[in-house]
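hey so i finally got around to running the thing on that chain from the lab meeting. sorry it took forever, my laptop kept dying and i had to restart like 3 times. anyway pasting the input first so we r on the same page abt which one it is
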Amino acid sequence: QGLACVRAVREAFPDLIITLDANQSFSPRDVEELRAYDGLGIGWIEEPLVVDRALGGCERAFRRLASLQRTLATPICLDESFVNGEEAARALAYPELRCVTVKIGKFGGIQRALEFVHRALAEGREVCMSGMYDTGISRFVHAAFQTLPGVVIPGDLGATDRYFDVDLTEPAYTAPDGIITLNAPGHDYGIGCSLAPRALAAHRQRR
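ok and heres what got predicted. didnt touch it at all, straight out
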């Protein structure tokens, strides 16, 4: 069913960059279906294989994904197979794994994430910026990372109103027509926003 949907999108939009996020939904028995995506010009497929971290953790996941990548033309992108910066760095030992999703919180903050991005790019990997259920505070930082030299593949950086009725930042983080504005007038420095006092007061749990 997924393959048919992707084929339909490709036929309707022959020049569109299409990326897929499998969220570890395929098993080794589904390799032939994964190979079928090679003919559709997919940018990358994120985390295709189901992984039980209790059985070998990230190293087992990386070995399996590297082995699969040797049989696929479509690049595999890492995300759930690592949970912190130390594990992400271990993925760089596998040259087959060419693409890594960076979520700054998983790396422990801006500096550690920045160090990993520079290292990954220096080793010829591609970086995809993405987030989780982030407020605008985090989204503005992720969008700033997207402007780094070498971070050229499209990130998953949609507006926060997909998750929250009210954001905590002024201005709110939006992406009208896919356009993100960093450092709008009045927010010329820093990450491009300030805290919205009323929104923060409405959600504050401790004072």
